[in-house]
Amino acid sequence: MRFRVRHVLAGCLVAVAMAAGVVRPQSAGPAGSAPCGAARPTGPDPKADSPAEEPSAETLDPLGPNAACYVCHMTFVREAISRVHAAAKVGCIRCHGLSADHANDENVGATPPDRRYRREDVDQACGDCHKTHRAWPQDVVARFLRRQLPADRPAICTDCHGRHRIDRAAATR
């Protein structure tokens, strides 16, 4: 009996996926083409010379390339630094490496990501992608004053542009 139930459930799943347009039989043609039995246009295909576009991470997952990290780091969803980079299709992996051991460690916080940055390394890391800093001087000064940074501690990118705030209490629950 269990064998039949699994087959029925699998068939239902395929039927729902087909109805939602997620899965199409090969005989139906490429996604977006006319349904079976419908009149199909004749003549050259206007898309024949253009390469097929892969769906973006944002299309497949609204949280973008950072979704796997958000499973544990839920507070990062609201952070400006995460939102800005996700909108530019830059995920956590770009700065922190794949960090598979970190992601798979069930002992929260025991394994660090592949790359972390000391304060003195932040500007260089940001500079790998952000070659120029085009902020107006008065904007920089205003941000600096708002942050109330000590004069003997030079400002770095994350002092003004945000950094990750890891909620240790939430991580240990």
- Overall mean pLDDT stands at 70
User: Given the structure, what is the number of helices?
Assistant: 10
Helix/sheet category: mainly alpha
Beta content comes to: under 5%
What composes the largest sheet? none
Fraction of residues in helices?
Answer: 40-55%
The counted number of beta strands is 0
Summary, kept brief:
This protein is mainly alpha-helical. Helices cover 40% and strands 0% of the residues. It is elongated and about 70 Å long.
Descriptors:
173 residues; mainly alpha; 10 helices; elongated; disordered C terminus
Characterise the protein shown here:
The model is unreliable at 169-173 (pLDDT under 50). With 173 residues, the protein is an all-alpha fold. Among the domains are: 61-116; 117-165, no CATH class. The chain has helices spanning 2-19, 57-60, 67-70, 80-87, 92-96, 100-104, 122-127, 137-147, 157-161, 168-171. The chain contains 10 helices and no strands.
Write the layout of secondary structure elements.
Elements: H1 2-19, H2 57-60, H3 67-70, H4 80-87, H5 92-96, H6 100-104, H7 122-127, H8 137-147, H9 157-161, H10 168-171
